[in-house]
Structure formats: structure tokens, C-alpha cells
Automatic annotation (TrEMBL), chain A:
Domain Carbohydrate-binding/sugar hydrolysis: 52-199, 207-359
Pathway: Protein modification; protein ubiquitination
Record Gene3D superfamilies: Single-stranded right-handed beta-helix, Pectin lyase-like
Protein name: Nitrous oxidase accessory protein
Entry keyword Signal: yes
Superkingdom to which the source organism belongs: Bacteria
Stretches of the chain forming a coiled coil according to its record: none
Keywords: Repeat, Signal, Ubl conjugation pathway
Signal peptide: 1-23
UniProtKB/TrEMBL annotation, chain B:
Segments crossing the lipid bilayer: 17-36
Source organism per UniProt: Fodinibius salinus
Gene3D superfamilies: 3.30.70.2050
Domain of life: Bacteria
Name under which the protein is recorded: Copper chaperone NosL
Length: 415, 163
């Protein structure tokens, strides 16, 4: 009897696993039996593949409520016709690949998106081309999701009311790699995210930030390029972020920063380049961070370090051709260390030829303090009077923070 | 001769006209001077101005707010919660200041924060995550929460918010 039960169990098990193997493919095409993506999904069994042939399928609020793989051939376009969400994913382990998603509704009150993943885990979105969606990919309360190699563009008028390219809210352990995002409000947006790995993305020409990070601990982002975004990049209220080998470039404007760090603790900023920004790196209320091996080139201000930032280490960075190397808003400097950097504005000498300047370098110019207090005085940037003032201040510091010095300035660029 | 006279009267007319114009301009100028010091809400340049509290760029008119001090200095904010926190932190400097919030249903219409009906929404995401939005009347706020859940709040509660 027991043997019979066992064999039955085995048999049922085999049947079940066989079902996995015999996953069928359902084809959706303009002139076939199934002409709508939703109909294809409705007919699919969990584990099936829905394959969409080329053509424009005008559909919105497509529900994926079981585990399927949605594929498309070249020029297979799902067009939401600005009526609502385009694709809504509710099932774990859904795969969406090689397809195009266009024209979600633009929401004034709702966060409409091209692809929304809500309370579904291990979803895989790859090589999807998204055009003119309000939000591109929207993940909420999702774990283990992979967003890879997607091309997300919006060419809406620069209205303030526009959503984010890749938006993550309350998600865990996600991979966001090799995506291209432009024309949205924030290219990448992370709020309450745990353990994200963000690499090789390119985010440019977005209205606000290339990447916007809030309350998202233990994340790492590397090898990304953030270019020409309205405000640059903002990372806020977060501990233990690793920011490695990224490029922050061409962020110009009165409130634009290569990267703005606010209330960031115990984090690492290494190997990044900050080029052509109004402010390369802005730090406020941030502590115990390590800023090493970065290149700051041709920025208005390379680093703005507000007085409420403490115990940060800036070492082995290159500061080349910046109008202001470091600026701060107070005479107080609480144990921030600036040793062993290369400063192109360093005017000292190296008589003993050990590669280290014999005179400490003071990267904070008196003039930068003036400018902090009176922004209009920037007019005098290249004037003789200001040069004299700076020179005098270098001899006898009166207004600039005395402890903010590099006592071991390098004679040659360090990178 | 007649023509000359005509010319003269014409000249006279134009000078008179100019005088009038000048007068009008002067009056308008004076008015402008007087109103320049008033505490009207200032224009916010979305996508350019930054929040005085959190330094973020202000892009969303639905949540934008501002404080106008009695001297006419303007502090702009990207969210109601930022304004509330800033107001708590700098209360001593903001005596006599006016606080404005944006009407959520009609962005760009400024409401007096102290007389506004606020909603802490369960579905709307505001820039700093506190989900505070403002309506001109209790009726409109109730209409809003009838289909999007949220809690009614007054300025007294909003101003005590902690983030």
C-alpha cells in the first residue's frame, strides 16, 4: 500500500515537472488567431511564453497575473495610447524581454508607468525599449528584481509634471544594470531601497536628477554616467553607500551638483570623476566618509564642504583646474582630513624632491568665503584685488578655517 | 499757415500726451515700489530653484511651498514638510512671516498655510515622503480623501511634524 502511494506520488511529481518542461509558446500577431497581448496572457498557463510578433498593439492596463515570459520580436510595440498603465506585473518570476512599451498615461495624481511591478518578486525586465511613458519602470515592494539593458526615453516637453525613468520604492536586493535613461524627472529614483546594485547605467538630460537616492542603505553604485541633468545627482539620508568609478559631468546651474550628499554616513566615494559641474561634490551634515582616488576637473567648485560635516577623509584625489578647490561656510572645520591630494592651484615648492610639497596647501580661498556670503561678488573672480586678498590670507589666515589644510600636498597628479 | 498751426497743435498734443504717459508710468512705478515690499507669494522657477531646507531642486508645483518674511525675503521649498521643519528650526527669525502652500488640485494657486486644510495622504507621494498635500477648504479635502484615503490635518499639527 505504502509502495503504491509512493509510486503515485512519484508519478504525480513527474507529471508536474513535465508540465514545466512542456511550457508552450503562445504567439500574438496582428493577423493570427490571437491579436491582443492580454488575450495571449489570458490563454497562457503558468510557465508559458507569450511571443509577440512585430506590429503596434494598442492596449493598456495589461495584467500579468501568472508566471509567464513575455517576449517580442523586433518592432513589437505595446502602445498604451496614454490611457493608463501599459503593463502591470503582479506575478513572481515574470520575465519581460525584447519588446517595446510606449505611451503610458501622464498622471497628475497617479504614478502611471510603462511597466509597473507591485508586490511581485524575482521579476526580470531586460532589453525593453520604453518611449514616452510617464514613469518608465516602477517597482514597489518587490524583491530580487533585475532591470537590465533597457532603453528608457521620454521626449515630453520639459514640464515639471513628469515621472522617473526607473523608480524603486520599498524594494530589496535588486540589480539595475546597463540601462539608458533620458528625458524623465529623475533618471533613477530610489526610496527605501535595501541592497541595490546599480552599475553601468547612463542617465542624462533628465529634468531633475540623474540618480536620486533617499533612505536607501547598503547600496552600491559603480561605473554609471550621470551627465547634463538639471540638478546633477542627489544622495540623501543614507548610510553605507559605495559610490565607485562613476562619472558626474556637465551639470550646470544654480542648483546643480555633480553629486549632492546630505546626511550620508560611513560611505565610500572612490575612483569617480567630477568634470564640468557648477559644484563637483557638495557635502552637508555628512560624517565618516572616505573620499579617495577621485578626479575633480574643471568645476566651478570642486568640493563644497559644509561645517556640519565631520570626520571625512579626502585623500589622494586630483584637483585640477577648478575655479574654487574647496569652499566652506564657516571657520570651523571638524576633523576633516585633506592630506595627500594633488592641487593644481598649489604654489609651493619641493626642495627635498620627495614628491611632497614643503609648504602646506590651503585649498579654501578667502574669496570663496566672500562668495558664500555675497554671491554677486563672483564678478570679481579674476580681479587683481582678489588675488592680493587671497595671497595675504595665505600668509596669515584670519577668516579661512585654519585646520582645513593639506599638509602633504603632492607635486604630481596622483592618478 | 494753417498747416503750421496744425503742426503746432499736434506738437502740443503729443507733449500733453507724453506728460500723461509719464504720470501714468510714475504712478505705476510707485505702486510697484509699494507692492515690492508686500508679502505676496513669489514666483517659483521650477527646475531651477532649490529647496531652502533639503537643497533639492523644486520641480513639482503640487507640493511647492514658500515663506515670505516681513522684509520680503522669500524661502522656497519643494514640499510642505520641508517648510514645516524649516519653520520649526528658524522660528525666531520668521516672526511676521507669511507661509504659502500650493493648492494640490490647482498647482500654482497659493494658499495661506495657516488657514489651509491639509491631508496626509496614504497614496500620494510627496517629494520628501511625508505625503502632505493642501486644499483650500475642508470640503475639497474630504472630496479628495473619499477616493484616495488620507487623514485631515490642520496647520497646528503639520507645523509640529518630525522627519
Amino acid at each position: 500500500m505504502r509502495l503504491f502511494k509512493l509510486t503515485m506520488l512519484l508519478f504525480v511529481g513527474l507529471l508536474l515537472s513535465a508540465q514545466q518542461v512542456w511550457a508552450t509558446q503562445i504567439t500574438v500577431s496582428k493577423n493570427g488567431d490571437i491579436t491582443s497581448v492580454q488575450a495571449g496572457i489570458d490563454q497562457a498557463q503558468p510557465g508559458d511564453t507569450v511571443f509577440v510578433k512585430a506590429g503596434r498593439y494598442v492596449e493598456y492596463n495589461i495584467q500579468i497575473d501568472k508566471r509567464i515570459t513575455l517576449l517580442g520580436e523586433d518592432n513589437a510595440i505595446i502602445d498604451g495610447d496614454e490611457q493608463g498603465f501599459v503593463v502591470v506585473v503582479k506575478a513572481d518570476s515574470t520575465v519581460i524581454k525584447d519588446i517595446e512599451v510606449h505611451n503610458s498615461k501622464a498622471g497628475f495624481m497617479d504614478d502611471y508607468a510603462g511597466i509597473v511591478v507591485e508586490e511581485a518578486n524575482n521579476v526580470h525586465i531586460e532589453n525593453v525599449k520604453m518611449v514616452n511613458n510617464f514613469f518608465g519602470i516602477y517597482l514597489a515592494k518587490s524583491e530580487g528584481t533585475i532591470v537590465k539593458g533597457n532603453h528608457i526615453i521620454a521626449s515630453r516637453q520639459r514640464e515639471t509634471n513628469s515621472g522617473n525613468g526607473i523608480h524603486l520604492w520599498y524594494t530589496k536586493d535588486v540589480e539595475i544594470t546597463n540601462n539608458y535613461v533620458s528625458g524623465h524627472r529623475d533618471g533613477l529614483y530610489f526610496e527605501f531601497v535595501e541592497g541595490a546594485f546599480i552599475a553601468g547605467n547612463e542617465s542624462e538630460n533628465n529634468i531633475r536628477y540623474g540618480i536620486h537616492f533617499m533612505y536607501s542603505d547598503n547600496c552600491r553604485y559603480e561605473r554609471n554616467t550621470f551627465r547634463d541633468n538639471g540638478g546633477g545627482v542627489a544622495v540623501m539620508y543614507t548610510s553605507n553607500v559605495e559610490i565607485v568609478n562613476n562619472h558626474f559631468a556637465d551639470n550646470w546651474g544654480s542648483s546643480a551638483y555633480g553629486m549632492l550628499l546630505k546626511e550620508i554616513n560611513r560611505s565610500i566615494v572612490t575612483g569617480n570623476t567630477f568634470t564640468n559641474n557648477s559644484v563637483g561634490l557638495y557635502m552637508e551634515a555628512s560624517s565618516r566618509n572616505k573620499v579617495k582616488d577621485n578626479a575633480f576637473e574643471q568645476n566651478g567648485w570642486a568640493v563644497k564642504l559644509m561645517a556640519n560635516s565631520t570626520n571625512n577623509t579626502f585623500t589622494e584625489n586630483n584637483f585640477i583646474a577648478n575655479s574654487f578647490e574647496v569652499s566652506t561656510n564657516s571657520r570651523m572645520n571638524y576633523s576633516n582630513n585633506f592630506d595627500h591630494n594633488y592641487w593644481s592651484q598649489y604654489e609651493g615648492y619641493d626642495l627635498d624632491r620627495d614628491g611632497v610639497g614643503d609648504v602646506p596647501h590651503r585649498p579654501v580661498r578667502l574669496f570663496s568665503i566672500l562668495v558664500e556670503k555675497q554671491p554677486q561678488s563672483l564678478l570679481l573672480l579674476r580681479s587683481l584685488l582678489i588675488d592680493l586678498l587671497d595671497a595675504a590670507e595665505k600668509f596669515m589666515p584670519v577668516l579661512t578655517p585654519e585646520t582645513l589644510i593639506d599638509s602633504k600636498p603632492q607635486m604630481e597628479p596622483v592618478l | 499757415m494753417v498747416e503750421e498751426q496744425k503742426g503746432l497743435t499736434n506738437k502740443k498734443d503729443t507733449t500733453m500726451y507724453l506728460y500723461k504717459l509719464l504720470k501714468i508710468i510714475a504712478v505705476i512705478g510707485l505702486l510697484l515700489l509699494v507692492t515690492a515690499c508686500s508679502q505676496e507669494p513669489a514666483e517659483i522657477h521650477y527646475g531651477n530653484d532649490e529647496c531652502a531646507h533639503c537643497k533639492m531642486m523644486i520641480t513639482d508645483a503640487q507640493f511647492a511651498s514658500q515663506i515670505v518674511t516681513d522684509k520680503g525675503k522669500v524661502h522656497k521649498f519643494d514640499a510642505i514638510e520641508c517648510m514645516a521643519i524649516y519653520y520649526q528650526m528658524n522660528q525666531d527669525e520668521l516672526d511676521g512671516a507669511k507661509l504659502y502652500v500650493s493648492n494640490y488640485a490647482k498647482p500654482g494657486n497659493w494658499l495661506n498655510a495657516k488657514k489651509t486644510q491639509f491631508v496626509k495622504s496614504e497614496v500620494v507621494n510627496s517629494p520628501m515622503g511625508e505625503s502632505l498635500i493642501a486644499f483650500p477648504s475642508r470640503k475639497e479635502a474630504e472630496k479628495h480623501i473619499s477616493d484616495r484615503p488620507g487623514k485631515l490635518l490642520k496647520w497646528a499639527e503639520v507645523s509640529q511634524i518630525e522627519m
